[in-house]
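Honest question from a wet-lab person: if I give you the sequences of every part of a complex, can you actually get the arrangement of the whole thing, not just the pieces? Trying it with mine:
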Amino acid sequence: MNTWFIVAAVVVLAFLGAPLFTLIGGIALYAFDSQGIDTSSVIIDLYRIAETPTLIAIPLFTFAGYLLAESKSPQRLVALARAVFGWIPGGLAIVVLVTCAFFTAFTGASGVTIVALGGILYPLLIKESYPEQFSLGLVTSSGSIGLLFPPSLPIIMYGIIAEVSIDQMFVAGIIPGFLLVGLIALYSVRVGVRSRVPTIPFSWTNLRAAVKGAAWEIPLPFIIVGGIYGGAFTATEASAVTAFYVLVVVAFIYRDMNLTKDVPRVMKESMVLVGAILAILGTALGLTNYLIDEQVPQQLFEFVQSNVESRFAFLLILNLFLLIVGMMMDIFSAIIVVVPLILPIARAFNIDPLHLGIIFLTNLEIGYLTPPVGLNLFLSGLRFEKPILEIARSVLVFIALMLSALLVITYLPELSLWLVQLFGTR
Amino acid sequence: MKLLQRVDELIGRGEGALLIVLLSIMVVLSFAQVVLRNLFSESLLWGEIFLRHMVLWIGFLGAARATGEGRHITIDAFTRFLSPRMKLVARILTNAFAVTICFFLMKASLKFLADEVESGSTLHGDVPSWYSQIIIPVGFALIIIHFLVRIARGVHSFRTGAIEK
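Yes, you can. This is the full assembly:
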C-alpha cells in the first residue's frame, strides 16, 4: 500500500477522534508486517509494561490524587492557604496558585484540578472583587501549574520513556516549578494591589485552626520530596507510601470517604485514566522500537544537524516544535511518542536529558492553555459556563508570563540541574 | 439493543469489580514491601513480580473501562465543531477502525501467548508466565466487545434520530 495514503488516513482518523492507541497500534502493526516481521512482536514490546518496575507508580499516584480531589482536602487546603497568604494584597490569588499547584502535582494534570478546586476558588475571587477576566484566566491557567512538582504523572512518564531516574527528575523540576508559580504570583499581587482587593488581617488563631484542620495533608509533600531527597526511598516506593497514607487519612482519620462506597468508586474512576494512558504506552512501545530499528531518530538527527548549527538555535526550534505538539496532542501521548525521537538529537547538542525533560514539560504545560486542543480551556468553559473565546482571551497574559519563564528555563540549564548536583543524586 | 446494553453493563461491572480488587491488593502489598525493605531490609521477590504484572492487568481492565465509557485519549479539537449528527458518524467510523485494529492486536497476542506457552517460560518458581499474559488477548477481546456495542448504539441512534449526550 502507498505510504502517503496511510499517512493521510491516519491524519483524517486522528482528527475524526479515533482513540490514539488504535492509531499508534495500527501503525505499529503495519510497520512490522511490511518488514516481514511477525506482528506478535508488537505484543512482545507491549509486554514490557509488566517488566518495568517504575510503572507501579502510575496507578498508585493516580489513585492517591483522585482520592484527595474527591475528599474534603480541597476545602481544608484552601482554608490553610488563606490563613497563610490572606493578609498579602493579592493573597487570594496566591492561595489559588499554591493550592492548584499542590493538586496538579498529585493528580498529574489530568484536569481534576479545575473540576475539584475551580468551583471553590473562582466564586471566592469574584466575591473579593478581583477583575472577572483576571480571575477566569488565573483559575484556568492554574489547572496545570504544578506540573513540574513531584509526584506529577507527566514527570514520571518522562523518566520512564527517557530512561532517566525519576528521583532526579523530581528534583530537577522544583526550581523551574517555583519560577513559574512565582512569576504568576508576582503579577497577581500587582493586580490585587491595583484592584484594591480587601485583605484578611493575619491571625495566629486562624492559622492554628487551619493547620490543625489540614494536619494530615501537610506532611504529604514532605513525605515524597523529603523521602526521595533524604534517600529514604525511591519514587516508586514514595508512590506506595503516598497511596496507603492518603487512603488511611481520608477513609479512617478524616472519614471524608466511605471505605465501602466512595473508595471503590474512586478506584474505578482513577483506573480509567490509567488504562487510557497504558493503552497508548503499550502500543507505542512497539512503534518506538520499530522506529529505532529503522534508525529514524538517527536520520532525524542527521537532518537537524545539517540544518541547525548552534545549540542556541536548536533550543529555539525545539521550543517552537514542542509548543505546536502541545497544541495538538495531550501530554501523555506527546511524551510517549515524541521523547524517543528528540532525545538522541538533544544529546548530540549536549543537552542534559533532565534539562530536556523540564523544557518538554514546560512547553506542554503551556499547551494546556492554547487552542485548539488546550484541555484547560474546555474544562474551564464547562465548569464556569463561559464561551471558549472569552476564556482563551483571559489566559493570554498568563501564557505570556509562562513563555518568558520557558525562555529562562531553556537557556539556564542550571535552574534544572543545580539542585540535582547539590543533592548528589547523580 | 436492550439486551446488548445489558451484556455490556454486566461485563463492565465485572471489570470494575476486578479493578477494585487488584488495586486494593496493590496498595496494601506495595506498602508492605516498602515497610519490609526499610525496616527489615528484606522484601518478597514474588511480591515484586506480582506487582509488576498487576500493572499489566490494571492497564487492560482500565482500558476496557475507558472503551466502555468512551473515555480513551483522542484528539477532539475538531470533532467539537461538528454537528451532533456528524459527530455520530465520526464516532461510528472511528470505532469501526478501532475494532479492526484491536482485532489484529488480539490475533497478534494470541500468537504471542501460544509462543510463550510453548517455550514454557515462568514468572517465579514454577508459575507459568501465561497465567499473567492471558490478560492481553482477553483484554483486547473485552475492548472489542465494548467498541462493537458502541457502534451498535451509534447506528441505532443514527437511524432513530435520537442523539444521546
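Two things worth pointing out. Chain A touches chain B through 66 residues (CB under 8 Å). The CA atoms of residues 327 and 373 of chain A lie 6 Å apart.
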